[in-house]
Hints:
Blueprint: E1 8-12, E2 15-19, E3 27-28, E4 37-41, E5 58-60, E6 64-69, E7 73-78, E8 82-87, H1 93-99, H2 103-111, E9 115-124, E10 127-132, H3 139-148, E11 152-155, E12 158-164, E13 167-171, E14 176-180, H4 181-186, E15 195-196, E16 203-207, E17 217-226, E18 234-236, H5 240-248, H6 256-259, H7 262-273, E19 277-282, H8 289-302
Parallel strand pairs: 2-4, 4-8, 10-17, 17-19
Antiparallel strand pairs: 1-2, 1-3, 5-6, 6-7, 7-8, 9-10, 9-11, 9-12, 12-13, 13-17, 14-16, 15-16, 18-19
Helix pairs in contact: 3-8, 5-7
Amino acid sequence: xxxxxxxxxxxxxxxxxxxxxxxxxxxxxxxxxxxxxxxxxxxxxxxxxxxxxxxxxxxxxxxxxxxxxxxxxxxxxxxxxxxxxxxxxxxxxxxxxxxxxxxxxxxxxxxxxxxxxxxxxxxxxxxxxxxxxxxxxxxxxxxxxxxxxxxxxxxxxxxxxxxxxxxxxxxxxxxxxxxxxxxxxxxxxxxxxxxxxxxxxxxxxxxxxxxxxxxxxxxxxxxxxxxxxxxxxxxxxxxxxxxxxxxxxxxxxxxxxxxxxxxxxxxxxxxxxxxxxxxxxxxxxxxxxxxxxxxxxxxxxxx
Length: 303
């Protein structure tokens, strides 16, 4: 496909993506940058040659990532410059389209050598903070609560990170937060104001009204949500602890072996750990999300 006639041009994590598919969730790129990645519907292989992953719905090798979502579609990320989507028979194109906004874009980042972190970035009083942690620890709910209190959220779930001139830089992804219906209720948000990720899931893309922010942000602090310390408490890490928590909270770190990039990212994370503060932030869900957000802002402001 020629990149000159593509209808839309988006900016995701600093990457310029051209597509004929309309993604209202993404930030339009009005710059004069050339298209770096083409995203299109097309033929997707059922399997990869030289598959190195042993997962039911994922196949991987050095240059390719293939995701197979039942009742949705197949998604092929190839050499960091093309994403091809093929819908499953009977699937709605809306469900198929939205599914490409999660792991697919993260794998694009890996293929383009970004440090892909599992979490989101928020700006608190001018300070860039990456919030990460294992699944279901409350990262997105905390980001949404911080947004409600006027903090600027520039990414959720996947964060595109680069180390540039000895600074850790985050690039905005798209102005939506993914929230389960239970989190919407706790945040006093209306489910109908969001968009379901898929018709058969109670998970929603919820708009963040204050996220029209397209500039890169320097990260000086990484906060890892955990239930291992008291709710609302902070613990500063040092040495190997910093590196270990950053490595463990890469997006799908198990994918790096099949991609042949384990050593490469071990080195990148080690370099990143020397440039940021890394803290644990307790969340055992004994405090309300509003209380947690207040404590988070207070600590980030006074630190």
